[in-house]
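Before relying on records like the one below, remember that each one covers exactly one chain. Contacts with other chains, cofactors or solvent are not represented anywhere in the record.
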Amino acid sequence: MNLIQILAVCGMLSPIIYTVMWILGGVLDSEYSHIKQDVSSLIAVDAPNKRLLDKFIISSSTLLFVFYIGLHWGINNGTGSAIAPLLLVIAGLLGVLVAILFPLDAGGELVTTRGKMHLILISISGLLTTVAMFVLWFQLAADPVWSTFATFSLISAILSLIFVIATPISTNSNYLGLVERFMVSTYQIYYFALALMVFLVN
């Protein structure tokens, strides 16, 4: 494998590790509800399995960030606009910072500056990723190799926006965890598909 393919493997591993993290977290904590509670509560400061799950979330975030660093060169050998890869690099860096420095407060609450920064940085990262999806659709739509992925990118961006709007609406309901998982899964599937495409093209 060449370097770009190795980075692409990192990108494919990231969503797998993230998904294993929240599934494992629910299995280990019998009081946790995937339907009612968000994923971030699993790694809040007082979460029972935080030390174990932190290893998963930090690994996942770091692998995704590493993949994004080489993304511009993974798309048509670095020709064309670097806007989308740059947005994703920033989004990936914010994800690493959240995983390492900004867990939710006890009980999954937003009380301290650290806890509030968790939500702020996650929101900015998600917004940058969604914008990058739209940019990649516009950039790659006419490319004979990437055109199908460009359509997928547009669909993913639209779904992401829908779930980004739906998630805060469901905050006070009994279905926050379920709605958030639809939103998170949209992003995770996109990360995997993008990394797989980079791997195959290169």
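The chain has one domain: 3-201.
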